[in-house]
Design brief:
four-stranded antiparallel β-sheet; Alpha-Beta Plaits; 183 residues; 2 domains; alpha+beta; elongated
Length: 183
């Protein structure tokens, strides 16, 4: 089987230590996490973990099953890039003197749909949101122009292309069972 980039989306209760439990699943299998983003979800008290890994599908299936066994984990799913909408954000700190003296740098920034969000005499900050390859390509071009002082990028943020969030269905079903049990 061939390794592909998978995005795992994990929903859990907001409990201290759960991130360590989730990442331990990858460590035990010696799987490198390419990116990791954790944030509150649209559901109060529920956090969303977006994790990208290179793996074979059978390995991803096993990892998701192991993650779902964690008590605080509500759901875990894996997706290929065509099943989700995703973005990253990157910040590029550029030398302002270079930016002012070379108009081509501004053209490169505009061509990638990036924007300059801060300018001072020493440095300028460029922000780019988009796909991983676009962010890397902009970095490569700016680096070749010798103007990059610093560079940072976020982990992937992703939502499914499905109209319904699976965790919402799960929570509604869990609430229904709880109400029936307490009647």
């Amino acid at each position: 089987m061939e390794k592909k980039l998978y995005t795992l989306i994990v929903y859990s209760e907001n409990i201290a230590g759960i991130l360590n439990q989730i990442t331990a699943v990858f460590t035990r299998r010696q799987i490198n996490i390419e990116s990791l983003n954790v944030s509150a979800s649209s559901i109060e008290g529920v956090h969303k973990y977006t994790i990208t890994i290179w793996a074979e599908e059978d390995t991803v299936i096993k990892v998701v099953k192991q993650i779902e066994k964690k008590i605080e984990v509500l759901q875990a799913h894996y997706f290929t890039d065509d099943e989700i909408f995703y973005h990253e954000i990157a910040l590029y700190k550029l030398a302002t003197p270079e930016l002012e003296n070379n108009s081509y740098i501004s053209k490169v920034v505009r061509r990638y749909g990036a924007s300059i969000v801060e300018v001072n005499p020493v440095y300028s900050i460029v922000k780019k949101a988009g796909m991983s390859d676009e962010i890397s390509s902009l970095y490569d071009e700016l680096q070749a122009l010798g103007c990059v002082l610093q560079f940072v990028r976020s982990g992937r943020v992703a939502i499914t292309k499905s109209c319904v969030e699976r965790v919402n269905e799960y929570l509604a079903d869990r609430e229904m069972k709880h109400l029936q049990k307490n009647k």
